[in-house]
Each structure stands twice: as C-alpha cells, then as structure tokens.
Hints:
By secondary structure, the protein is mainly α.
Amino acid sequence: MEREQQSFWEKFVAIDRRILYALIFVIVGVVVLRPLGLPIIVSADTQEYYDTIEAIPAGGVIWLDAGYGPGSIGELGPMMEATIRHALRNNVRVVMAAMWEQGGRMAETAWLNVAPDFPDKEYGVDIVN
C-alpha cells in the first residue's frame, strides 16, 4: 500500500499556531537583541540633497512641493518631515505648496508632525502652507 506524501503547505498548516508564534517571537527577539549590523550607505543624490540645504544661508527660503496623496504618505511623508526639520534647524524658512488635490493636507500633516519639535518657530513666519 502506497503512503500519500503530504505537501509542504499541508504540513505547514498542520503545525500548532502557538509553535509558529513562539518561533517568530524567538527570531524577532534575536534580531532585536543582536542586530545584523548592516552598513547604512548614503547615496550621492542623498548627500547632494543634504548639502544643498546646508548651503542655504540662515533666513533663506526653500519651496517644498507636497504633490502627493494619502497613498504615498508612508514613503514621501517622512522625507517631507525630514526636509522641514533640516531647514528649520538651520533657520531656513519653508514655503510648502501643492498642485495635487490632497497635497495641501499632506503638507499640513507634515508640519503638524514636526511643529512640537520647534516651539520657537511660528506658522506664517518660519513656515507656511
């Protein structure tokens, strides 16, 4: 009599859920306690972007385009916030605008996330949307 072979997925689905959760917990715990130590490489474009903002004199103005929507906020929102922080830290004023339907709201969200870090900066003077 031939014994039927179970596929990998059938075996996997049959494993007790608690064992899988324990395995995930152990793997995540090991990575948190002992990170892989992968190098962070700054690309030439990123360095040029940073250097450009650094070169703006105090009191200067930058124009940021918030031309993105809620579907892109996970990727573009942190970049917008980092740019705002960098500019305000260097006393560079920020003008935000958008030619995109939800862009104004995205710019406002970025400012509201950054504002608590800069209590001395005033909306309408140091930053405007």
